[in-house]
From TrEMBL:
Transmembrane segments: 25-48, 60-80, 92-113, 125-144, 151-174, 180-203, 215-232, 244-262, 286-311, 323-341, 353-375, 381-403, 415-442, 454-475
Record's bilayer topology term: Multi-pass membrane protein
Cellular localisation: Membrane
GO annotations of cellular component type: membrane
Xref: Pfam families: MFS_1
Primary subcellular site in the record, as a coarse category: membrane
PROSITE patterns hit by this protein: MFS
Keyword Electron transport attributed: no
Keywords associated with the record: Membrane, Transmembrane, Transmembrane helix
Name of the protein: EmrB/QacA subfamily drug resistance transporter
Amino acid sequence: MSQSSNIAAPAASFSSAASRGAGTLGLWVMLSGTFLVVLDFFIVNVALPSMQRELRASAGTLQMVVAGYGLATAAGLITGGRLGDLFGRRRMFMLGLLLFTLASAACGLAPNAELLVAARVLQGLAGALLQPQVLAMIGLAYTGESRARAFAAYGLTLGLGATLGQLVGGLLIHADPGGLGWRSCFLINVPIGLLALVLAPRAIPPLANGGNSRLDLAGMLLVAAGSVAVVLPLVEGREQGWPLWSWLCLAASLPLLAAFAFQQRRLAANGGAPLVAPVLLANRRFVMGLFTTLAFYVGNASLYFVLALYLQQGLALDPLSSGLVFTSLAVGFFATSMAGARLARRFGGQPPIALGALVLAVGHALQFVNVAGWAGHAHVVAWMVPLLLVQGAGLGMVMAPLVSTVLAGLPPQHAGVASGVLSMVQQASNALGVALIGILFYGRLGGAPDAAGYASAFGVALVYLMASALLVAVLQRRGSRPQPKA
């Protein structure tokens, strides 16, 4: 099957009958879980200023509301996938969805910033249990062209959850249902989650487990500790003046991750069931795909984070106006995502991911010129809207086909684990990107920010984003080269 079929008309997957019992409703229910997990990473961006004012949260705490969720999700994704192998995909999907719904309610009712961050971490862990089951269930429930279209629908769901999150959040805060304000951004998950829970047993068939007999607890603890040791000091260290503990955490991350790699190889050599099969890391195309995913997602979440801050705090837009500006990004994303098959045919059957990354880099560069040229002027928003359309088009050309491209050609027995690894890299990169861009953005902003200061900080962030997009183009070109024969 050509690679272009992997990104063909995602909407068509909703009308294609599954080969193993999951129909249109089943796919909708599966993707609803993914949509909620992704949406909740991004919907908070537009609510951050409101949260900060009401809860009197520091900048570091504000970053933890975003990065803590992504980090918790990333740390638990591979373990969540293994639990699906052990106890059943549908069962773990439903348990994760239930816990996610309860944690969303806790976020919406949090009385202070500390409890909000704790609830966000719990929400992220629930997402880690829920999300890897979706890719695995799609792989088990669909075959052939239906599977390719379902994977494309999954990629489209990731993008729409990210780009629409700002608009949905802005609309909810503006509508202010029941006087809830930013809290409605979390509480909206409750009815959606409950509806999906009711439908899941009817819409999703019981699917075979992966057959692994035990959970690799040592590997789970090592990868979680290594991830936290990288991201936590990057989020909290700047605001606290880079205390000794932050440097010790960063120093400890390398031996922790090295120990994880060694432990996984030794467990596999002894006939055990490691979290990550070493044979996957011997696949050059898969590894390059992971690096491409890392480069893309350290810029993806970062864009939404700093753009929301710049629009609301730098340009003094209200949440609804800020969300409407984000709509241009969503339109560009949706247009190129839906045109993916036609674009692939024009480029010899391969999705033009590298070209999309270049389009994204150009969009960031033009946005930099716009912000620098119209700093503090009302015209900056008028020019920002069409440029966000360009940036969204680049995002759509990369994000929608990236999942199926990374997973293409892997042995079927490793598809479930590979999906968990890919999801972990996505979420860890999101959290890492927010932490890194927070250092740059707040470092440039200084202690007495004004409109010009926000424009300067956003400009620095755009340079970072441009570099991330260019790196995606380079890695994708290298990764698409034929793999050397053994």
